[in-house]
Design brief:
It is a single chain. With 287 residues, this protein is mainly α. It has a domain at 85-133. It has 13 helices and no strands. Helix 5 packs antiparallel against helix 6, helix 10 (187-224) runs antiparallel to helix 11 (229-242) and helix 12 packs antiparallel against helix 13 (265-279). The longest helix is centred in the last third of the chain and has 38 residues, at 187-224. The protein is extended.
Length: 287
């Protein structure tokens, strides 16, 4: 009986509470139901936005030909958001040279760099440093472009060498006897081999010339920026490509002197040690 009386009182109190209070307590999160309703509406609208983006993305694949090597995606989204290629165009920079030669050549170099035309960028930078020989940063940039150009010629040399080896296998795998002699003295094969060797020589000389030019540009930049450790590191990089290992060792030592807390200190010291041992002259033989 007592339990029944208690239960009846609880039911009466629940009925006496205002409807707004019961609604507020009935909300499991304890927050504002109107706020939840707002976010539900927002999510519904967002779904349509996702659908539109999905359609746009699918149309992009069909329109620009993804996988074809084109740069259509970047061009599309650049135009979509109102962006465009930054910097001065090649034509505008060339026109500027007549009025402001130094600035014109500087802008021309950047325009060529943006288009990936390394050789033309090198030419423009060479004209610029001819007018502004004390611009250390420009010398550094020129060295970087020359080093990149040397790497391109080096890659061409390696590809041409691989093609030559595939087209003209060594004499050891030629058949013996009369057939082997005929193949070895084939005039057409000899002509192709001569052309290939000439091309290999050309690429090798071009790569060496650009590596040497990069080394000189970096050295000039280092003279203008004597306290910059990066300038010494650049010299070491170009010297390594050129095969000037003594210059590389000297530059690495200067780099560590200017930057003793370098994270690569241990690796650089090991490299200096190995290069020093490799370039050390052999002891003279005693009779």
């Amino acid at each position: 009986m007592a339990r029944a009386a208690v239960k009846a009182k609880q039911q009466q109190r629940a009925k006496a509470q205002p409807a707004k209070a019961r609604s507020r307590r009935g909300h499991s999160g304890g927050g504002n139901p109107n706020q939840d309703l707002f976010f539900m509406k927002l999510r519904r609208h967002a779904k349509w936005a996702y659908v539109v983006l999905a359609i746009l993305f699918a149309a992009t694949f069909a329109a620009v030909g993804v996988g074809s090597g084109s740069n259509g995606l970047s061009q599309l989204f650049s135009g979509l958001f109102g962006g465009s290629s930054s910097g001065t165009s090649v034509a505008a920079a060339q026109a500027e040279i007549a009025k402001h030669p130094a600035k014109g050549y500087r802008d021309l170099a950047r325009a060529y760099e943006g288009k990936g035309e390394t050789a033309s960028a090198v030419g423009a930078l060479q004209s610029y440093v001819g007018l502004k020989p004390k611009d250390g940063l420009a010398w550094t940039e020129l060295g970087g472009e020359q080093l990149s150009l040397g790497s391109k010629f080096s890659s061409r040399y390696q590809r041409a060498q691989a093609a030559e080896q595939a087209a003209n296998p060594g004499q050891s795998i030629l058949p013996s006897g009369t057939l082997g002699q005929a193949l070895a003295t084939n005039p057409l094969e000899q002509l192709n081999s001569q052309k290939s060797n000439a091309l290999l020589t050309q690429y090798s000389q071009q790569a060496s010339a650009e590596y040497g030019a990069a080394l000189q540009s970096y050295q000039k930049a280092a003279k203008l920026r004597p306290k910059d450790p990066q300038a010494q590191y650049n010299i070491a990089q170009a010297a390594q490509a050129e095969g000037q290992y003594q210059i590389e060792v000297t530059a690495l030592k200067k780099y560590l002197a200017l930057y003793p807390t370098s994270p690569q200190k241990g690796e650089i010291k090991s490299l200096i040690k190995s290069l020093t041992a490799a370039t050390k002259p052999a002891p003279k033989k005693t009779k």
